[in-house]
Amino acid sequence: MATAVKICGITRVEDAAAAARAGASYIGLVFYAPSPRCVTRAQAREIVGTLPPPVVPVAVFVNPGEAEVRATLAEVPVPVLQFSGSESPGFCRGFERPYIKAVHMKSGVDLLQYARDYHDAKALLLDASVEGLHGGSGVPFDWDLIPRAVPLPVILSGGLTVANVRDAVRRTRPDGVDVSSGVESAKGVKDAAKIAAFITGVRDADG
Asked: CA torsion 134→135→136→139, rounded to 10°?
């Protein structure tokens, strides 16, 4: 199975197009005001409207209120949600859409318990635990913290770049990888050549 690739923190139509051309499976649209990659609903709607199938847009939230999520879904046609804060399992499953739950990995995190608690998640996204940040840190975590058999699909994130993604995929064999800062020329601005090289690295590792 080919490793799915999610290009997260898309803020521009041209970056979404570059991700699609390169073979990304998903793009992430961040609805979290403190993030330098946050988009408005109008921006997100424009980006989603230009996406060719089969690229799937994912709405990324951090500890949102229910009203915020529902207002976003009313304006932006996103089929998959991602929750990157401390949202409860009940909250995550309350929107009649598949969801991805981010887990901030550090020593002592029980990933198998997360898998039990969020048993109906589409996937667990494993990111670095960085104080004050909820993604996009550019920092990898210790991949040895990942148990051998996780009963849910795993998306590897946190500090992935063209330089390390081949090794990351070969060592952890995730179902997907997620990259944001690792394919940027500036915060929130993706680099088409870096996106293409990143996905080439993933495919090399798949082979």
From this structure: 100
